[in-house]
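Hi R.,

Here are the chain sequences for the assembly we discussed:
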Amino acid sequence: GAVVSQHPSRVICKSGTSVKIECRSLDFQATTMFWYRQFPKKSLMLMATSNEGSKATYEQGVEKDKFLINHASLTLSTLTVTSAHPEDSSFYICSAAGTGGHSYEQYFGPGTRLTVT
Amino acid sequence: GDSVTQMEGPVTLSEEACLTINCTYTATGYPSLFWYVQYPGEGLQLLLKATKADDKGSNKGFEATYRKETTSFHLEKGSVQVSDSAVYFCALNSGNQFYFGTGTSLTVIP
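And here is the predicted structure of the full complex:
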């Protein structure tokens, strides 16, 4: 089946620094990738949708200047949390949708646990 | 707008008990429906799916039937195991956008 990886799996950073999280589709091309944020014991909140080669579409309430998304290729999307603060600590999950066939399916990465101290 | 409502947990069951986690949806058009499972510290894994009315998705002993008349997609398993302990999310896909329920935590005790 389709595999999506995320790197790093865990990261601890100091307040004020920036952190980049990578999301890769390993065995298929993903025209669309999604970034979610999950709070403890809560559901997934869609942050943004990114299409390869174009600007990401952010959900209401998500600061695009704080959460920078780049989808430079059909297999890689990155989320950069700029000037991180403790309230940005969360579990970030990406998913990727294929280019054809079962494009309605999303394949999820394993998630990245971000802790800002 | 489109949305998913699922049974709140947590749910605690003894091993070999029957499981039902309710899920209902609101959608325009004809969405695809999914159940995802999240084990502790991990991302989401697709458990099963159904793409049209009356379809039954099944995997690892879990089943769910897409009921258009009741707008439901309840997850069922006849005999749960300790290894089924996880959080289960109901989701729908409409226009390439996913909508997730709030998740139901299941703990199975020996």
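Chain A has a mean pLDDT of 88. The first strand of chain A starts at residue 4 and ends at 7.

Let me know if anything looks off.

Best,
T.
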